[in-house]
Design brief:
EC number: 2.7.1.50
Protein name: Hydroxyethylthiazole kinase
GO molecular function: kinase activity
Oligomer: single chain
Helix content: 40-55%
Structural class: alpha/beta
Family: Belongs to the Thz kinase family.
Bound molecules: adenosine-5'-diphosphate, 4-methyl-5-hydroxyethylthiazole phosphate, magnesium ion
Cofactor: Mg(2+)
Length: 269
Amino acid sequence: MPSSAPTPLPLATLAQELTRFRATRPLVHVLTNEVVQEITANVLLAAGAAPAMIVAQEEVPAFAAIAGAVLINVGTLHSVRLAAMEQAVNAANAAGVPWTLDPVAVGALKYRTDFCRELIRQKPAAIRGNASEIMALAGAGMGGRGVDSTSGSDAALDAARFLAHETGAIVAVTGETDYITDGKTTLATPWGHPIMTQVVGTGCALSALVAAFTAGARNRLDAVASACAMAGMAGQHAQKHSQGPGSFKAAFLDALYHIQPDNLAEISA
Ligand SMILES: Nc1ncnc2c1ncn2[C@@H]1O[C@H](COP(=O)(O)OP(=O)(O)O)[C@@H](O)[C@H]1O
Ligand SMILES: Cc1ncsc1CCOP(=O)(O)O
Ligand SMILES: [Mg+2]
């Protein structure tokens, strides 16, 4: 499968995607884990989307069909949640609504690994995970240490390309550099800071942002890369204006709120 070397996401592309995103304020149907509900909703709100955590099987099909995008995050998977997720994916696909998968801790645990392997046959628009998760989902690794990666994103680039090729999804593998690929073309976003790994939910919330950017996207590769760039830039900027994980979280939300198409150079410096 021919694939080219990663190229940086141009700031002009991010500016365009951010303008589109803010103009539409996408409604995001979030099925995620119990740990990150609050940071996920606040990241989406600060960035400019409208989150709704609708989880009952009785409500999921109707809501997935009218949302702009759906997020499936298996961080605290259990049987009732799994059934609701299957219904959300079916309803989203029937209505042409893009859905994104965050394969939290896949590889480490068989139940969620089997479920995610099955789910990726159902045409996800995007998959966002850390390096260990993307390698495990691609069948090229045993998973990380719980929800954390034990590899760098560079090591998962081939697995990300393979997964994109197999599923048709845009695959984002995050870490020091985020790589976003459709299997042929790969974009790189270099922004971020290691402190982001010390605040729970930065990855999960990024996946929700990825889902939000896929809503109404003309170019899904640019859309997913822009979500990664936005989070990375906000994280890098927030670290400079905070003293540790607690104040970082507040500064991160502030930075997501203040990023504009015309201050990208300043925020990303
Ligand atoms: N070493 C790092 N340097 C800079 N940014 C990082 C680093 N590790 C992770 N990030 C950023 O933290 C966010 C969460 O990514 P990651 O830690 O890979 O996901 P997860 O929380 O799912 O394991 C992303 O925005 C990513 O770019
Ligand atoms: C700690 C934890 N345990 C189950 S899900 C979860 C949250 C993981 O969040 P992230 O992948 O964003 O670090
Ligand atoms: Mg994660």
